[in-house]
Amino acid sequence: MSIATARSTETPTLAVSTVIFTLRPNDSGALQLATPLVRRIRAPFEGQWALPGGPLQVNEDLATSASHTLRDTTGLEPRYLEQLYAFGSVDRAGGASAERVVSIVYWALVGADEAELAIDSENVQWFWADELPRLAFDHNQIVEYALGRLRNKLEYSRIAHVFLSEAFTLAQLREVYEAVLGRELDPGNFRRMVESTGTVEETGEVLAGTRHRPPKLYRATIQAGETK
Amino acid sequence: MSIATARSTETPTLAVSTVIFTLRPNDSGALQLATPLVRRIRAPFEGQWALPGGPLQVNEDLATSASHTLRDTTGLEPRYLEQLYAFGSVDRAGGASAERVVSIVYWALVGADEAELAIDSENVQWFWADELPRLAFDHNQIVEYALGRLRNKLEYSRIAHVFLSEAFTLAQLREVYEAVLGRELDPGNFRRMVESTGTVEETGEVLAGTRHRPPKLYRATIQAGETK
């Protein structure tokens, strides 16, 4: 956010930022939630990491602004964005700036195929969502809020399928749940939970391989990517 | 919103508005959802009804601004407000104003005890939420969005209890559901649904009166007013 370019104490400035999550394997090979951040190159919080975003242009809709600044700063173009929340506490710059900025924040999930940062720069990087440094403004709180929304949505939507191929094993689905929730789940309980919700169905195929009893493949019962 | 007082084509203006619902008996004696509106006294949309709200002051938090303008315009002071959504389409004034306004909208429910408009004016009135006139800006859409959120929340939260006394009959609870959902519900199915969710429990008392078989009284199993 280039909030230092237009200082004003008269009216709050409006910015639009985006929290994006993907799942990637960590050093132990387990999936873990990651989010891209952009290093600020001007005051306030110069040199600190922040969510991708920028000031709202007068001729841009909110979601258009989110997509636009996201593309410009990270190269990411998620298939959908959803509005998360407007953050506007008077003290969210923590005294680092006299300017009042209200941020309307979007969030998105991207699958492995979409998660390439087209911007190759030391100022744009993926971070593990639960191991963030101290971010600019109240952006740590914003990521926490987005994590809460994601975890909540996991319970009552098909959101996990954004991270999976069209056909997947229950073990793969459970791995996504474990990565998002940040804790291990009992395989038996997980199988019963999934079967009781009716969100997946057997494809009739099994995972190709050399195992004696290859695991069954499943698919989501409604379109993957739906989040409402 | 006094958006005509400070015109700018440089940066969007930020306003905070609030949708409040209450339940009141209509002419047939059935409960119906009502929302308070304020008549605009300046351009654009002069003379048309609009949601209570106003421009965000630089020294006010978002929820504080919502409470403050709500109190000033309607006299209402709901026990809690929750952020609904930020509305910011470029064309939301429909050509009636050159100024771009982004509205961060809050919503609230008020019980009968809180629903008195302290401002006695022909420019502040309650309307039935499903019989609104053409409102200023995109405020009809905003009320529709708030209705959707309310109806959705009814399904998985204790929100109905905001409209009830501490002890209530299942018929009274069903009347609230019917008013919010805008359709009649089968009493037997409703009873089974409520019993299966465990959101209410018997108080051990019955409704005082002269009937031979007075109906049982229930209470919410967690604090009324909780909405998450």
From TrEMBL, chains A, B:
Domain NrtR DNA-binding winged helix, residue spans: 163-219
Pfam families in UniProt: NUDIX, WHD_NrtR
InterPro entries named among the record's database cross-references: NUDIX_hydrolase-like_dom_sf, NUDIX_hydrolase_dom, WH-like_DNA-bd_sf, WH_DNA-bd_sf, WHD_NrtR
Domain Nudix hydrolase: 37-143
PANTHER family from the UniProt entry: ADP-RIBOSE PYROPHOSPHATASE (PTHR43736), SLR1690 PROTEIN (PTHR43736:SF4)
Protein name per UniProt: Unannotated protein
Species this chain originates from: freshwater metagenome
